[in-house]
């Protein structure tokens, strides 16, 4: 059991480091920081990190080189940060060993959720999900342990299955799930319902948490692919 997850944040912009560090510390992570690739590798060689948030555009040693050197000896989870938006560059980042990829400007709350999701995948049951998740400056609040949802401070009643679908989506922000994938994640491979029942669950959830079902803010339909949860938060430039 890991008692205190250590995270290394590498970015040459001090304001980004400060904000990301503050948010991660609120989640009780132990946070180390570096402003260039050389410092990042020195820290990596001294400490045992559980996850690294790594900017690509770094002085002294580039993020790509840092990632390659780390991958030569370690499978530590890596989330890449970059201002690059070209699809080929994103693919290259994944191909050299990144586990996840987020472009600037980005939502720090989304980054924190991605950090938790990646740690859960990497360390299985060693990281419990936060008891209460909030989105859009508190507009939507989800209490995991009590299975309670509040919209603008008011309680909302979800069925058990609706809650499972919502929890699956918000635990993987901006990840697109097909109906089949959502069924397997939310209910397991032995679920005997039909994929199309997911549409009913999503419709019901939207009725309860969205201000405008025809223009949803949280559960987004990606036509021809499925659904995703889109956290609406202030962005860090």
From TrEMBL:
<dbReference type="InterPro" id="IPR036388">
    <property type="entry name" value="WH-like_DNA-bd_sf"/>
</dbReference>
<dbReference type="Pfam" id="PF00486">
    <property type="entry name" value="Trans_reg_C"/>
</dbReference>
<feature type="domain" description="Response regulatory">
    <location>
        <begin position="6"/>
        <end position="119"/>
    </location>
</feature>
<dbReference type="GO" id="GO:0000976">
    <property type="term" value="F:transcription cis-regulatory region binding"/>
</dbReference>
<dbReference type="GO" id="GO:0032993">
    <property type="term" value="C:protein-DNA complex"/>
</dbReference>
<dbReference type="InterPro" id="IPR016032">
    <property type="entry name" value="Sig_transdc_resp-reg_C-effctor"/>
</dbReference>
<keyword id="KW-0804">Transcription</keyword>
<dbReference type="InterPro" id="IPR039420">
    <property type="entry name" value="WalR-like"/>
</dbReference>
<feature type="domain" description="OmpR/PhoB-type">
    <location>
        <begin position="130"/>
        <end position="231"/>
    </location>
</feature>
<dbReference type="GO" id="GO:0005829">
    <property type="term" value="C:cytosol"/>
</dbReference>
<keyword id="KW-0902">Two-component regulatory system</keyword>
<dbReference type="InterPro" id="IPR001867">
    <property type="entry name" value="OmpR/PhoB-type_DNA-bd"/>
</dbReference>
<dbReference type="GO" id="GO:0000156">
    <property type="term" value="F:phosphorelay response regulator activity"/>
</dbReference>
<dbReference type="InterPro" id="IPR001789">
    <property type="entry name" value="Sig_transdc_resp-reg_receiver"/>
</dbReference>
<dbReference type="GO" id="GO:0006355">
    <property type="term" value="P:regulation of DNA-templated transcription"/>
</dbReference>
<keyword id="KW-0805">Transcription regulation</keyword>
<protein>
    <recommendedName>
        <fullName>Stage 0 sporulation protein A homolog</fullName>
    </recommendedName>
</protein>
<keyword id="KW-0238">DNA-binding</keyword>
<keyword id="KW-0597">Phosphoprotein</keyword>
<comment type="function">
    <text>May play the central regulatory role in sporulation. It may be an element of the effector pathway responsible for the activation of sporulation genes in response to nutritional stress. Spo0A may act in concert with spo0H (a sigma factor) to control the expression of some genes that are critical to the sporulation process.</text>
</comment>
<dbReference type="InterPro" id="IPR011006">
    <property type="entry name" value="CheY-like_superfamily"/>
</dbReference>
<feature type="DNA-binding region" description="OmpR/PhoB-type">
    <location>
        <begin position="130"/>
        <end position="231"/>
    </location>
</feature>
<feature type="modified residue" description="4-aspartylphosphate">
    <location>
        <position position="55"/>
    </location>
</feature>
<dbReference type="Pfam" id="PF00072">
    <property type="entry name" value="Response_reg"/>
</dbReference>
């Amino acid at each position: 059991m890991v008692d205190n997850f250590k995270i290394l944040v590498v970015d040459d912009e001090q304001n980004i480091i400060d904000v990301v560090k503050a948010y991660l510390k609120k989640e009780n992570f132990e946070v180390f920081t570096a402003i260039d690739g050389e410092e990042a590798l020195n820290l990596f060689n001294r400490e045992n990190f559980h996850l690294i948030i790594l900017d690509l555009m770094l002085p002294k040693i580039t993020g790509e080189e840092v990632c390659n050197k780390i991958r030569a000896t370690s499978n530590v989870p890596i989330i890449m940060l970059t201002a690059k938006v070209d699809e080929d560059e994103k693919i290259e980042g994944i191909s050299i060993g990144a586990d996840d990829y987020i472009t600037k400007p980005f939502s720090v709350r989304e980054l924190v959720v991605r950090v938790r999701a990646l740690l859960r995948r990497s360390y299985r049951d060693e990281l419990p999900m936060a008891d209460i998740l909030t989105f859009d400056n508190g507009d939507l609040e989800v209490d995991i342990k009590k299975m309670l949802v509040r919209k603008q401070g008011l309680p909302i009643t979800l069925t058990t299955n609706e809650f499972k679908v919502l929890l699956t989506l918000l635990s993987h922000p901006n990840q697109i799930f097909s109906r089949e994938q959502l069924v397997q994640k939310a209910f397991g491979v032995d679920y005997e319902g039909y994929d199309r029942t997911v549409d009913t669950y999503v419709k019901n959830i939207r009725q309860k948490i969205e201000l405008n079902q025809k223009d949803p803010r949280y559960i987004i339909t990606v036509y021809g692919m499925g659904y995703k949860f889109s956290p609406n938060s202030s962005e860090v430039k």
